[in-house]
Amino acid sequence: MEFIIISLVKAALVAAVLLTLAAYLVWIERKVLAHIQLRVGPYRVGPNGLLQPLADLVKLVTKEGVMPAQVNRFYYLLAPFLAVALALVSISVIPFGTEIEVFGIKTYMGLADVNIGLLVILAISAVSVYAIALGGWASNNKYALLGGLRSAAQMISYELPMSLAIASPLLLANTLSLREVAEAQAGFYFGFLPRWHIFQMPMPQLIAFAVFLVAGFAETNRVPFDLPEAENELVAGFHTEYSSTCFAAFFTAEYVNMVTISALATHLFLGGWNPIVPEPVAGLVPVFLFLAAAAALFFHGLNSVSTRPWDKYSFPVVGVVALGLAGIFALAFLPLPGPLASIAAALHPLFWFCAKVGVILFLFIWVRGTLPRFRFDQLMKFAWTFLFPVAIVQLLATALMVALVK
Amino acid sequence: MDAILFLLFAAIAVACGINLVVQTHPISSALSLIGVMASLAVLYLLLGAEFMAAAQMIVYAGAIMVLFVFTIMLLNAGAEHKKGRSVIARLLGVPALIGFLGLVSFLIQSLLPRSEEVRFGAFTGGTAQAIGKKLFTGYLLPFEVTSVLILVAILGAVVLARKEI
User: Fold this and answer.
1) Angle formed by the axes of helices A2-36 and A244-269, nearest 10°
2) Cis ω on the peptide bond leading into residue A339 (within 30° of 0)?
3) How many domains, in total, are found in chain A?
4) Shortest CA distance to A353 belongs to which of A256, A291, A276, A294?
5) Can you give the pLDDT at residue A244?
6) Which carries the bigger pLDDT value, residue A364 or residue A347?
7) Cβ <8 Å between A123 and B61
8) Cβ burial, residue A304 (10 Å; 0-12/13-18/19+)
9) Which segments within A282-374 are labelled E, that is strand?
10) What is the rounded distance in angstroms from the CA atom of residue A74 to the CA atom of residue B90?
11) What are the C-alpha distances in Å from B150 to residues A18, A122, A158, A257, B156?
C-alpha cells in the first residue's frame, strides 16, 4: 500500500515537472534561437516573455479542434494520445539521482528501477513510430501521409545505429539497468579525469556518443533531421491537419522525447549524476555557479539599458531565486539534523544530472539554430552508408577491448 | 495481483486476436496484431521472461509490424468488400468452429503429458545475462544457423529488388 502511494506521488511529481519543463523548453528554445539570429524572441507576455508558454497553452486549449472531412475518427484521435502517452511512459525508467530519505521514508529518485530499463526505452521508442505514422495516415491528406511515411522510414533507419551506439557503453558497464550504468561510472582516473563512459578506458566512447546524439536528433525528428515536418515541401508533415489539443499533444511529445534522449545520453555516456570534479570541489560547484548567476542577473538588472521597464525587476527577481538555490546547495556543508542533511546531500546528484541534461538540451537547440535541413535521400544515405557501419565498427572495437582487458 | 494481470492481458490478447480477423480495414487488423503482441509481451513479463518481453516489443511490435503498417499505408489499401457467404458457411460456421476448438482442446488435454504447474515468479532465468549465456554455450549452433538464415533472407531481398531496377 505504502509503495503504491509513494509511486503515485512520485509519478505526479515527475509528470508535473516534466510537462512544465516541456512548456518552458519551448520558451528557452525560442529565446536561444532568437539570440542566435540577433532577435529578441518572445518578450511581450509577462517579463521577458516568461508567461508565453502559459499563453500558448491557453490558446491551444481554447481553439476549436477541427476534424477534417472523411478522416478515420478513431485513429485520428488515437495518434496524438499515443504520442504523448508513450513519451511520458518512457521517462519512468530513468533514474534522477541516488536514494533519498524524506521523513523516514527511504525512496529511490526515479519512478521504477527495472533491470531491463534500457530495453524498455528501446521498446517504447520502437512503438512510438506508430503515433506519427498513424497520425499522418489518418489525416486523409497527402502531405500528412508523406510526412508520416518519411517519419516511419527515418525512425526505423536511425534506430539501428542508435541501438548499436547504446550497446557499447553497456558492454563496459555490463548491465542493462540505468541506475547501475550510472553507478559504474563513479570515480576518477589520476584523481581528475572522471570515469564517465566517454572517457573510460580501455575504449573511450566518443564515437558511440556522437553516433547516439546524431541518431537521437533523428529519432526526435529535430533539425537537421526534421524531414517529417519539412514545411517548405510538406506544409507541416504528419500534423498538418491537427489543431488545438491534438496538436499540443504532438508538440509536447516531441519536447518530452528530447528530454528522454538527453537523460539517456547523460546516463550512458556522461556519467549520470556523478560530478565532473572530485568530491570537495564538486560540492562547491553548484554554490558558486548559482552565486555567479545571481551576480550577473543583479548586475544586468540594475544597470539595465533596455527601454523595457520590467527588465529592471525581472532580472533581480530571478537573481534572488538563484541566490536561494546557492544557499540550498551550501546547506550540505553545514551540520544539519538528520532528515534535512539527507535531503541536502541528495540534491547534489540531482543537480549534476539536471546540469548535464540541460547542456544536451541546449545542444539540441544550438544545432537547430545552426544546421540546415538534409534532403531525404541524403538522410537515408547518411544513416545506412555512414552511421551504421561506424556504429558496428565501434561496437566491435569496444567488445574486443573489453574482452582483452577482462 | 499476478493472476488478475494475467487474466486481464490474456483477455486483451484474445480480444485483439478476434478483432484482427473481424476488422475489414487492413490498418485496423495490423494494429490489432500489435495489440496481441504487446499483451503477449506483458504475459512474458509476468512469467519472469523479461528479456523476451522486451525483445517481443522491440522486434515484433516495433520493427516487423512497422514494416506491415508502412506497406499498407504505402499501397493505401482500402477496406475490403465482403462478398455474400454461402449458405453452408452461414449455418454451420460457428458450430463447426466450436466443435473443432473443443476437439483440439480435448486432444491437448488427453494426449500431452501433464507438465508441472506454472507459478508466477518461479522462473528466474529470463534475464539478459542468462539468455546470453544459454545462446552462446548451449545453443550456439542453432544461433549461428539462424543468423545465416537471416543473411540468406537479406540476400534474397536484395536479389528480388535488383530485378525491379
Assistant:
1) 100
2) no
3) 1
4) A276
5) 80
6) A364
7) yes
8) middle
9) none
10) 30
11) 41, 22, 20, 32, 10
Spell out which chain A residues touch chain B, with contact meaning CB-CB distance below 8 angstroms: 72, 75, 114-116, 119-120, 122-124, 126-127, 129-130, 133-134, 136-137, 145, 148-149, 152-153, 156, 159, 176
Question: A264-277: per-residue pLDDT in tens?
Answer: 999 888 888 888 87
In chain B, where the domains are located: 1-78, 127-165
- A133-151 per-position pLDDT tens digit: 888 888 878 888 888 888 8
How far apart, in whole angstroms, are the C-alpha atoms of residue A286 and residue A347?
10
HSE at residue A205, side-chain half, CA atoms within 13 A, is 31
Q: Is the pLDDT of residue A279 over 80?
A: no
The pLDDT of residue B71 is 83
B33 contacts chain A (CB < 8 A): no
Q: How far is CA B31 from the centre of its chain?
A: 13
Q: How far apart are CA B56 and CA B59, in angstroms?
A: 6
Q: Topology of B1-78 in CATH?
A: Four Helix Bundle (Hemerythrin (Met), subunit A) (1.20.120)
pLDDT in the model for residue B163: 67
Given a contact cutoff of 8 angstroms between Cβ atoms, the answer to whether A111 and A208 are in contact is no
Indicate which of A70, A115, A127 best probes the interface with B, i.e. most B CBs within 10 Å of its own CB: A127
**Structural domain for A370, as ranges:** 2-274+335-405
Q: What ipTM was predicted for this assembly? A: 0.79
Q: Please write the tens of the pLDDT for every residue from A296-336.
A: 888 877 776 666 666 677 778 888 888 888 887 777 777 66
* A315 vs B134 pLDDT, higher one: B134
Quote the minimal CA–CA distance from B139 to chain A in Å. Answer: 21
Nearest to B60, CA basis, from B13, B24, B22? B13
Task: Estimate the crossing angle of helix A142-173 against helix A206-219, to 10 degrees.
Answer: 160
Q: Cell 573510460 identifies what position?
A: A200
Asked if the Cβ–Cβ distance from B62 to A75 is below 8 Å, we say no
Contact A203, A241 (CB under 8 A): no
Q: Which amino acid is at A198?
A: I
**A44-97 confidence digits (pLDDT tens):** 777 777 888 888 888 888 888 777 777 778 888 888 888 889 988 888 888 887
* Structural domain includes residue A48: yes
